[in-house]
């Protein structure tokens, strides 16, 4: 390995090209020294040489902290997702960070690497794994609290959506229980109201999550694993609040059901729980990065709202521009607002005021507060923007401005975008 190779990492990256209905695969080289990347498209034909797709360049939001399997970032309006390491060097280097110190030949790069890692606000332990997790209907009323616990346990949520499951979805998820006496119960239990499906990332994600979930029977969990989610939120061996995949194979299969990497050739994933009866709230990327999702949901609940649907999105630039079109040429922060919304994951919510009594749209605007968080802190200190906002662009939440746009904005997120 020469010095040049030593300074770069190599990943496999995928982009779901919806126009062409196919998943494009790329090799991405990431240069540690200046945070630049280079993309080569991998072609299907045997022997076809990879084609240069993007010359070495710097891309906003690409940095060492985002270089892990499962992370998504935006390259020229396309959402690219890292699906794997492309060489053993990268796997080992990123995976065994602590051993890097001994193995590094180039002391300068080594130092640069470590300093950079330590400086990352959102630094995640490297060599992360993914797993599937789900809150069952009986846990949904306290999902805000549970999301905070999940965060405190060190899990990063890279995908989430509320789903209304039907019998077939449940038979797919629990195919190993075919013919079991409790299957009828399970179908009843999980079809009564929505569940929250999630893709979690952490070190040893599968076992780490199962340990946090606890034993199947919540009563046993309270004795054997009192801090576990089932001990805290479940009732018995049937109503046990949460689901987890028991091994790597199940986790892959279950993630594929709920978050298929492509729609091409897949059974359709479970339907979202959106009803299009509420109003739209988007928890912006900065607020998610700062770990405010659980607390924002708590405030929304305390404000008398019910969250009907919730889904994580990695918004593409064209879509952000479309959403914010009304502000173009009107609000000076328009371009920065588009940048912020495409900066990383956001979470869209459909919220309804007090079980449909009253006007969700205007009530929610009151709860969100003035657009400028500094003004909000002065005149409406109990609003979401006063509590979680920083600037006019990083103001924690987007909410629909005029009542005429409510339906189209909710539909845009929950029907059109995937
Ligand atoms: P786990 O969810 O811990 O992997 P299982 O795969 O054995 O547990 O069962 C799937 C789900 O079915 C359980 O989480 C629980 O909700 C329900 N269940 C399991 N066993 C019973 C039972 N004996 N009676 C009622 N419900 C059960
Ligand atoms: Mg199981």
UniProtKB/TrEMBL annotation:
**Any GO BP:** UTP biosynthetic process
Among CDD domains, the record links this protein to:
NDPk7B (cd04412)
Where does the record say this protein resides? Answer: Cytoplasm, Cytoskeleton, Cilium axoneme
Q: Which residues form the DM10 domain?
A: 5-98
- SMART domains referenced in this protein's UniProt entry, alphabetically: DM10, NDK
Q: What is its main location?
A: cytoplasm
Q: Does the keyword Flavoprotein apply?
A: no
The domain of life is: Eukaryota
SUPFAM superfamilies per the UniProt record, alphabetical: Nucleoside diphosphate kinase, NDK (SSF54919)
Q: Which UniProt keywords are given for this protein, alphabetically ordered?
A: Cell projection, Cytoplasm, Cytoskeleton
User: Which GO CC annotations does the UniProt entry carry?
Assistant: axonemal microtubule; centrosome
What's an example of a GO molecular-function annotation for this chain? nucleoside diphosphate kinase activity
Q: Which InterPro entries match?
A: DM10_dom (IPR006602), NDK-like_dom (IPR034907), NDK-like_dom_sf (IPR036850), NDPk7B (IPR037993), Nucleoside_diP_kinase (IPR001564)
Q: Which family does it belong to?
A: Belongs to the NDK family.
Tell me what this protein is called: DM10 domain-containing protein
């Amino acid at each position: 390995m020469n010095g040049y190779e030593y300074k770069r990492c190599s990943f496999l990256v995928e982009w779901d090209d919806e126009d062409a209905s196919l998943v494009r695969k790329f090799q991405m080289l990431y240069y540690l020294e200046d945070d630049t990347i280079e993309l080569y498209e991998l072609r299907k034909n045997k022997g076809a040489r990879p084609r240069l797709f993007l010359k070495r360049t710097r891309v906003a939001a690409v940095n060492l902290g985002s270089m892990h399997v499962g992370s998504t970032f935006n390259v020229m309006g396309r959402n690219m997702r890292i699906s794997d390491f492309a060489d053993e060097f990268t796997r080992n280097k990123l995976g065994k960070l602590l051993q890097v110190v001994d193995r590094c030949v180039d002391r300068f790069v080594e130092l640069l690497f470590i300093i950079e890692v330590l400086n990352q606000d959102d630094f995640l332990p490297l060599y992360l794994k993914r797993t599937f997790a789900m809150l069952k209907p009986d846990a949904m009323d306290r999902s805000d609290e549970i999301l905070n616990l999940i965060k405190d346990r060190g899990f990063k949520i890279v995908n989430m959506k509320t789903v209304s499951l039907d019998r077939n979805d449940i038979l797919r998820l629990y195919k190993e229980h075919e013919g079991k006496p409790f299957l009828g119960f399970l179908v009843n239990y999980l079809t009564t109201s929505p569940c929250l499906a999630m893709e979690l990332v952490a070190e040893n994600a599968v076992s780490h999550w199962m340990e946090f979930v606890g034993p199947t029977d919540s009563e046993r969990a309270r004795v054997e694993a009192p801090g576990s989610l089932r001990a805290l939120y479940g009732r018995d061996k049937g109503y046990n609040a949460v689901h987890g995949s028991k091994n790597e194979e199940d986790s892959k299969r279950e993630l594929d059901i709920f978050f298929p990497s492509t729609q091409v050739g897949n059974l359709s994933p479970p339907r979202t729980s959106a009803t299009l009866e509420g109003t739209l709230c988007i928890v912006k990327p900065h607020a998610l990065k700062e770990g405010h999702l659980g607390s924002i949901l708590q405030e929304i609940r305390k404000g008398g709202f019910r969250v009907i649907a919730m889904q994580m999105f990695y918004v593409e630039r064209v879509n952000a521009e479309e959403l914010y079109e009304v502000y173009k040429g009107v609000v000076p922060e328009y371009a920065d607002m588009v940048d912020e919304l495409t900066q990383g994951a956001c979470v869209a919510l459909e919220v309804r005021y007090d079980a449909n009594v009253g006007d969700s749209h205007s009530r929610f605007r009151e709860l969100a507060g003035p657009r400028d968080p500094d003004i909000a802190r002065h005149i409406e200190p109990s609003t979401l923007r006063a509590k979680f906002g920083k600037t006019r662009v990083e103001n924690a939440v987007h909410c629909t401005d005029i009542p005429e746009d409510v339906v189209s904005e909710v539909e845009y997120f929950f029907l059109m975008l995937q």
